[in-house]
Amino acid sequence: MLEIAGLQVQLDADAGLVRAIAGMHLALTRGETFALVGESGCGKSMTALALMRLLPENGRIAGGSVLLGGRDLLDLPESRMRQVRGGRIGMIFQEPSTSLNPVMRVGEQIVEAIEAHTELRGKAARAKAIDWLARVGIPEPQRRIDDYPFRLSGGQKQRVMIAIALAAEPDYLIADEPTTALDVTIQAQILDLIRDLQRERQLGVLLITHDLAVVSGMAHRVALMYAGQIIEVAPAAEFFAHPKHPYARLLLQALPEAARRDAPLAAIAGTVPPLWLEFAGCRFAPRCDKAMGHCASTPPALTEQGPRHQVRCLLYSQPGDALSPRETLSP
Ligand code: SF4
Ligand code: MG
Fold this sequence. Notes:
By secondary structure, the chain is an alpha/beta fold.
């Protein structure tokens, strides 16, 4: 299990101290795809960067832990962390062109991952790299292995990134907007590929996306983030059928049936509050169509509202009254 417990991330910005992640808990098990979804700037990517210890220079982890097999990754020396990163936890990002080394042949980049994280060396590693290119659907892998990245299309580059990430035989994969830069057809192919590899290798996948269609097709569980906090977590089918948080309801309502396939998160009136603010109450209150008098002054806690279903909203509970819903929304 990969577990984030009480994670707090702060950034120094011109406007002041930004609390990018405010006390996050999240557990990812092998064999499941867990989607982290939310508008841009809500803290999804920051969560991934923090857990890989790849925060930008103005960022720091201000509290919490990231447990992998009982060890806190935040305490590991950087040399050990390098083995975890790309070894036990693979990563793929939105822009394959910026992650691939432009002056290294694609095969060498896969071989590098294989040699760094498995027992294979030399010819055996190269043969394995060819296998991987074939496995991720690159035609003529024997020939393409010696190409430089610029010879590949965007979709092929993303396939190569997936090959590099999985060649190290990780237990977990972090995929941050893995298909956002690709056209719809290629997007679907790449998502199918990730789903197949996830099943085949019992990977735990943390899928970061702003696209609910991607979530509904891929995820076993969903966590919805808003302004640096998780505000709803549920099994994916439950989340789509019975969303509870007013923000989740607005997002899902605003997706017209026909557009559900590939619509980004719907526009909801108002904007995400800047995270250098101190929040007295609910962070969503200024945009909430169900806001009550005390919402602006009482911070809601994440409370259990069904099997594996947690919600951060005062409609469902009073502070400290985690298990008895005070009031429920009509469906
Ligand atoms: Fe809306 Fe209040 Fe719930 Fe926040 S706590 S989401 S403002 S109802
Ligand atoms: Mg992002």
